[in-house]
């Protein structure tokens, strides 16, 4: 998808705002400005306060994760012929997910996700926005919408931006769509499994904390204009922006990303890998009040040697995701935090054994799986079903808009609320009936009655 460069419905900024933004850029941060959009219609009371999105970039195989098909034969299930029981009777998942099997009472599996699109960019757009591509507007993804409606414009006061992506950009489309750049996610970069976790714009490579403090002191010594005009409103605004920036670099904001504050045993429990430690950072972020966190996990585009890749990826997923569920639950955070596991589509159920694929799987948007937990979603359930070979939806199709709309409802976001756009069009959080978006209804089966 092409990125929309329009800065949003407020193209003009004051000199004060220019000063503030200049300081923010200089500090390498994405901090809030003082612009605010119009008030939105009230929604039902929120059950969830935050979302942690576990995004399996490239599209994970549903048959090799949460919808095993051992009865379909070797050409479909390959070497994964022995799915394991979970702590929910009659509920089986891939044998390489034993830790998640012990946590099945905390999550529900949707085995009938569908949109029919097999292109990475377009499928990612559909799955994360609920809209179909190709219209006049590029819509924002759910993370950007939450950043708008549950972030700064809802009174969010945190130093850390309300939409965080770890550790790589999503890359498949513009996450903020037609919303202004203010609602782009803050992408951390770095690797939380390393010490320190070098968050871009927070930890400067090769510069110690003391050197950062010395630079700040030198800046203050050179600020003769500020001392000469101590009551100037614009300079006061600049000083406030600088304070926020350094609080992020050297203060409480930076501490959220500092995993050395966690017990080594807990870090081991999550797994000392990029994904595992990202899950731990995500828990710290939502505990700190950040409303939307995405962990972008690459490597799931397994056209070649799918099963070799699964043997690497699934134990890492198993350890990190199961630890996240347990940790959130023990801290009393799971009831207010939605966990959403998905990719943009599934993989071809029939294995491509021939050269050059050597047991690979292609793209498959006709049916795939997603997992949800927490924030009001019930655990221990299966929604929908694929057919005997995992090639089609057998019962209860679930379209991306159904899942996204269900999360909005749990977050207390009004689906009819207006989204500001640069063209003055009537754009809503959820698509209206005349947009032609397929829907089979919200996930009431696993939502509070």
What does this entry show, briefly?
The chain has 449 residues and is of the alpha/beta class.
What does this molecule look like?
There is one protein chain. This protein has 449 residues and is of the alpha/beta class. It has a single domain (50-203, 257-446), classed as Alkaline Phosphatase, subunit A (3-Layer(aba) Sandwich). The chain has 13 helices and 14 strands. The chain has helices at 15-27, 74-77, 98-101, 120-129, 142-149, 209-222, 224-228, 233-250, 252-256, 264-270, 274-287, 306-330, 400-411, and strands spanning 50-56, 84-85, 92-93, 107-113, 163-166, 186-187, 292-297, 337-342, 346-347, 363-364, 368-373, 382-383, 385-386, 393-395. A hairpin with a 6-residue loop joins β2 and β3. The radius of gyration is 23 Å and the shape is globular. It starts with 14 loop residues before the first helix and ends in a 38-residue tail after the last helix.
Report the strand count.
14
Query: CATH class, please?
Result: Alpha Beta
Q: Return the string of H and E elements.
A: HEHEEHEHHEEHHHHHHEHEEEEEEEH
Give average pLDDT, whole number.
Answer: 85
| Main beta-sheet strand count, sense and barrel state | 8 strands, mixed
Number of discrete domains: 1
Number of helices: 13
